[in-house]
Amino acid sequence: MTRIQPAAETIEEDWFKKAINTSDIDIFVLTGHNPVKPGIPKAESTFPLLMETLRKARPEIPVQGFGGHTHRRDFHVYDEKSSAIESGKYCDTVGWISLDGISSKSLSSRATEPELSSTPDNDADLATLDDTTCPKNKTFNMDLTRRYLDWNRLTFSYHASGSQDQFNTTSGLNVSQQIDDARNSQNLTHVYGCAPRTYCISCKPSGDEGNVYTLVKTAAAATVVDPNRASKSRMIIVNRGAIRYDLVKGPFTVDDSYIVCPYTNTFKYIPDVPYSLASKVLDYMIDQKTRRKRSMTVDTISSQLLGYDECDNPSPHNATSLPKPKSLFGRILETDTATPGYTTCDDLGNDGDDTPHSTIPDYPQEPYVQATAQFPSGGEPEKTDLIFSDFLAGRVVSALNSFKPETEYTSSDVTLYLPTNFTTNNFIPSYASMAWQDNIDNCKIEE
């Protein structure tokens, strides 16, 4: 049996204390699916605790962490000898870091490695981007370089050794063919509809036609409906985190449906809730979510990180053409036209992105959205079916009871609204099959 042990318990165990006090340690490398910044809302990362423990026990030994979870590019300096990097989303960013200046008997006894004279020193003036809004606000007493590389073929071929004209290998081409065969065998290329525009998670404000949550409300209202209760007024609550990526203009396929909304949560409901109560639930849940975030320590957090638990950073479609790459070891190169993408500001400044981009707007979004259907024209219903993703049931019941109803709601009032084979992964594809059939046989990918 596997048991997940809290870090606070681990650091008190004898094996851990013995391990970190071994004499011939050059560097501690800390890896984990944890945010690297202290005080990240919701996550309560254990990195700061582990860093503090290691630094107290062995202050002379550097610590380098590799974190994750927030889907952000970020680098945090804890002190002059300890730091950690986060490298965006999976298949989105490659994080790269080098450290020089480690004092070590074991290292000094080895053969000297060839020195890269062009490797930048973190204390040097690397950034040519004139941006005083992102100063380097931490010091580090070792030579350190970090880069965030865009995950695409151009980046990989540019930084690979040898000829970029011969970047393909027989093995690589075989793997590509196997992936293509698997996609076809799983019917991932089936087209549900032709998306008339791109819908993004945060590059458009809430309520804008180009905001994906505007689409969520439209799609949920049209498709999340029990035929036996179709005439009943209904309110449908979906959490923001159900949507994991932008939906791109062009063919909307089975593959895209998993990219945009991979989760398979069922829809549950409480029937015939008085509208006077149901109409307050969304605001209550949003308020509770906001209170929980504000209760965390956020003094070290960039405002960019407050929406950390969603994949709301640039998506592949934002780069309509890839910019000329720059050297991994050189200064940032200017490009004729910077395409939209990551513009990272971390503890070491703004020179970490391997490819310069123009900034994409990042509008805040509410943690939940609500769709309505079958409401009286120009009025409000007396009662409504209150529908929600299954895991929100407890929050919805708590919200209703906070309004002091005549009879308290319990989990027994919650029941399945639609069959279990219709989930949060299905409602957008169902809508696409209904509403996006124009040009489906000649649907062009956005360029």
From TrEMBL:
<dbReference type="GO" id="GO:0016787">
    <property type="term" value="F:hydrolase activity"/>
</dbReference>
<dbReference type="InterPro" id="IPR036907">
    <property type="entry name" value="5'-Nucleotdase_C_sf"/>
</dbReference>
<dbReference type="InterPro" id="IPR053828">
    <property type="entry name" value="Nucleosidase_C"/>
</dbReference>
<feature type="domain" description="Putative 5'-nucleotidase C-terminal">
    <location>
        <begin position="198"/>
        <end position="396"/>
    </location>
</feature>
<dbReference type="InterPro" id="IPR006179">
    <property type="entry name" value="5_nucleotidase/apyrase"/>
</dbReference>
<dbReference type="Pfam" id="PF21953">
    <property type="entry name" value="NadN_nucleosid_C"/>
</dbReference>
<protein>
    <recommendedName>
        <fullName>Putative 5'-nucleotidase C-terminal domain-containing protein</fullName>
    </recommendedName>
</protein>
<dbReference type="GO" id="GO:0005829">
    <property type="term" value="C:cytosol"/>
</dbReference>
<feature type="region of interest" description="Disordered">
    <location>
        <begin position="108"/>
        <end position="130"/>
    </location>
</feature>
<dbReference type="InterPro" id="IPR029052">
    <property type="entry name" value="Metallo-depent_PP-like"/>
</dbReference>
<dbReference type="GO" id="GO:0009166">
    <property type="term" value="P:nucleotide catabolic process"/>
</dbReference>
